[in-house]
Amino acid sequence: MSVYQEIDSYKKINVILIFIIMFIFFYCFFLPYLNFGLRSSCEGLPLAYCKSRGLTRAFSQILRFHFQEAIAYNPFSIKIFCFFFLQLIARFLINMIISFSLFRKILIFDVSLSVISFLFSFYNLVLPY
Which residue ranges does UniProt annotate as crossing the membrane (predicted)? Predict the structure, then answer.
């Protein structure tokens, strides 16, 4: 596979990730207007047993700039939202600046930064108390 094909594949993956993250944000934003009557399986459980409880509702509040309500739904929501928001920005920027000569360096930087920010954002959900 040539470097040009690798760059093209990398750009396609970034575009797919952009659409997925934007879909999540749009869904969370319009969630209060969508009433499917679905209940979470975490409803009523302590946060120690279900650390992801309320993330969708918290994202909805963050998108409306109601940060205190978001923290009330899930105390980890701000960090997790920031991870997805920064990934969205990074995907846009990387697709704009990627070039043949810098591809390997950008790829290494992107993967390293994404892994570090993922670990920082999600360590509360993965590690036990």
Answer: 12-34, 76-94, 106-126
